[in-house]
Amino acid sequence: MTDEGSARPTVPRTGGAAVSPQPAAAWGDPWAGGRHPVWYRPRFTMSHGTAAPPGPDHARARALGWSEIAERLDMVLHPVVGTHSGRVLGVEAVIGNAGALGFASPDDLLDGAFDSSEPADPLRADNRLPDIVQAAHAGALRLFAALTERASLKLFLSIDTRMIAWADPLIAHLRVEVERHGIHASSVIVMISERLPFFNLDTLCTGDPAAAAAHTELSRLFKTLRSLSGRLALSDFGAGTASLPLLTLARPDLVKVDRFFVQTQAADRSRRLTLGSLINLVHLMGTQVMAEGVETVDQYHVCRQAGCDYIQGPLVGPPVSDPAVLTDDCADIRALNETDKRAARSDAALITSQTQSIEPITLGTPMTVVFERFRRARDQTFLPAVDASAEPLGIVREADLKEYTYSLYGKDLLSNRALGKTLDEFVVRCPVADVNTKAERILEVFSASGGAECILITCDRQYMGFLSASSLLKVISEKNLAMARDQNPLSRLPGNNMINEYIADALLDNQAFWIIVYLDFDNFKPFNDAYGYRQGDRAITLFAELLRKELPQHDVFVGHVGGDDFFVGFKDYDGDTAVDLIGNLIERFRNDVESFYDEVSRQRGYMIGRDRDGNERHLPLLTASAAVIELPRAHAARSADDIAGQIAVYKKKAKQSASKIARARMETCDAVGCGGGAALGVGAIGSG
To answer: In the list 20, 528, 630, 638, which could disulfide-bond 536, CB 3.0-4.6 Å?
Structure first.
């Protein structure tokens, strides 16, 4: 079937007669009369920038025509899972049969629909993108409406940026479809894709009046897109065309990080660092983060450690075309969380103990009820606001209602739905954090919010309560006190309790590559005897400071066992990289600690002192040695005693090595078996 003229597709709908979407021609041309001051006129086509004829892959599409393609669109739902719980919290709708319709991908289909560069080609004669987008949205809503447990789920609908100029009719069409299928509007979140540019950044940077008008136009756009559910999402973040400006201007509620930073990042430290930095930046703006394209357990652990709130990808399950197949949780992710001992050391219990709970008000609540709530609780200056699924939207401040409270007819006006404002117009955005978020991260988000009354706390996106400034300070204070009790008083580094917990994590998580390093001083006793304990303490303090300076602090664990013994832990580091860092640390310490000796000893390169047996000897100057024990993926280590035994062996080898480093690797389950009481295999792979 081919298109005839400019006929628009008729989209069949479940449970009623077919309804024809409003034709794109009726929406008008935002670029009529020349260049638009804000929106780019996209020129992206199936040939990615040039007007080359469609290849043989589009023969099927040409045979069908756009009307038939729109009718045959099949949508699929990609599950979105909570990182800390494994619960399915939402779905993203994507075109699932682009290949069967003659296109290489859903993006290729959308590009083809937009292409109007060749009037003689029925596939490229007109811009049919509005028709395809309408049909896709209608199909997604039909599929979502068929889910039996959709009340607690969110549906993410992607908006092609070439449709931005038609935002008003697009959202109006969505409102009709949402109401028609009996879906609560708060369940549908519009997601802007950054795949293509859509606004002129230069216009926003100029100092003339056009800049103010451009900002006004963008603000109106984001308000329109957000108006459907009160929320807005941004996808392809970090690899899009205007990620940081768009993040700043749109202030989305959720950001989906591009798969580039997720896939292979477990083995690529630079991507891992970038992912962590991006997530931290987004969280500081009070926005939650989803990671797409998560395929492996390693990638899941990296995303979780970096602070991702939600994940999406093959690991959590394939896209769903049958609503009955979608489950309410992902068993694999739930199992990973239950066996992840790090969860037991999270700040969740501490945060929960300080979280204050006020019954929230639900969007749509009459204003008379809101006034009554404030009247009954005179000490409350705000009320948390949630949507129909108990997900927080922000707060309603009593101060914002005073204008109407003390006005003669103010309350009456607000109570009249036809004349007054509704509750959603008084909702003020407020920072939100999951209860599993580290306390320090919550403090950063709260501090960056610019004087917010509180930070709302959620569990699996559901409202739990809030932390005020004083409550948050209590959380931080109690955590710091607990850490101080375990810190070594001299070096201020974590002590044995945290070191033991780190080793326990390494034993439990055999899906990551762990490197454990045990360092101690050589010739420390004669130095301490000759120069006194205060000089010995200075040497220990110097080494502790070098550990902080020479090793990355964000993803390397450093501890102080006691005396002149120290501990370093690496996770998912290349072995050679870790050894190089330790080697540089030892060399730096050897050079710096020479200044603690007298001039004669420095010139000689040794000191005259007595060894442990009391014999006078020429003793080398102070240095450090390191036993490096690698725990590869699927390692066979069973207990901390296994690791301690190998540390003892290789510590002696390190002291005899010219490089002061001895390196060993635990054998894997494949090599020695992982049955009960399996032997531990160790092989030296370098001793300096």
So the answer is: 528
